[in-house]
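Hi there,

I know you've been waiting on this one. I reran it after we fixed the sequence typo, so this is the corrected version. Both the input and the resulting structure follow.
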Amino acid sequence: MLMVDDHPEVAKAVGRLLSLDCEVVGTITDGSAALEAVHRLQPDVVVLDMNLPNIHGLEACRLIAQAHPRTKVIVFTAVTDPGTREQALAAGASAFVSKLATEELLAAIGSCMQLIEQGAN
């Protein structure tokens, strides 16, 4: 799992939380570095914030989904309006989770891991 958030403290804190249940291969703080890390590390799951420097989260999601279709992207953001959720899912996100609901993030990661184990895209 790769954690991507523009706030280094959030990326590290959520990465530590997630490391209790899965292997965290890195924490990244901008969109272009996230794309490079996905290419280099080939994580099963990317937890991706929307508001990222260099490349916006929606564009990063789209590029990851196109270049690495087996990598599941979970958009994890404070932006919660339904239109943004629909845009993220259309960009290739496997799930869209509010930063106010960390238990939903853990459930989304579990669902993605089940899909990966079943060999589904």
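Quick highlight: DSSP finds five helices and five strands in the chain.

Best,
R. S.
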